[in-house]
Amino acid sequence: MIRFDLNPRLEGDSLPVADLPLCAVRLMKDANYPWLLLIPRQSDLVEITDLAPEDRLQLMTEIATCAETLKGITGCDKINIGALGNVVSQLHVHVIARFRSDAAWPGPVWGAAPATPYEPAAQERLVDALRARLIA
Amino acid sequence: MIRFDLNPRLEGDSLPVADLPLCAVRLMKDANYPWLLLIPRQSDLVEITDLAPEDRLQLMTEIATCAETLKGITGCDKINIGALGNVVSQLHVHVIARFRSDAAWPGPVWGAAPATPYEPAAQERLVDALRARLIA
């Protein structure tokens, strides 16, 4: 069995949505943007190139699934995808639904606006909708 | 033959390095960070999900190749990867060598510091080194 420890900051900033074959998918607790984190459930990963080649391809498949799911649910103007890891080194990929009206447009979301909590019912509806499509 | 027009802003901000099977690889004219652009040579692409599924996997392979090449040449502290496209919609992927000492660390590079031209000999050395590894 592979040990998988989620970084405490990633865990605190997000909520569990679904487990795909490679990644844990989590929703950032930030109502400014519908924003998913994909975290491969393997230990000691920092760069995408730390994944085995076949897992890199699975990561791309899961990024595309999350992008299409977010686009389908939100009708966003653009999807932003990023793997930065300058602050939290554990490998994680951001898949973010962007709107021309959002708090950071057209800039990147990182460091742009303070996280705003979801209204609880809206958060539950979004998590349920994401889960229904991702687990289907 | 597939028509492929490079967006004028992407073209003006960067220099050609190499053609991989899917993407044109270009170096951003910004000495703040060794920074590659990967642009799939197909028309009318905006999102990664506009690529056929097999081309998405090829894109991941080429991202990993560029990441390993940049890391090998520069000895950087971290690779940043991003597909944003909020300003220039033509699909392009950033693969950036980051250093703890660089102008934007630990933030993202986009919008952080004005582009600084390379000293011509340094630019030529970097392009030659990239080309030698990417075309090998």
From TrEMBL, chains A, B:
It holds the Pfam family HIT. It comes from the Bacteria. This is HIT domain-containing protein. Residues 36-105 form the HIT domain. It comes from Pannonibacter tanglangensis. GO terms for molecular function: catalytic activity. SUPFAM superfamilies: HIT-like. InterPro entries: HIT-like, HIT-like_sf, HIT_Hint.
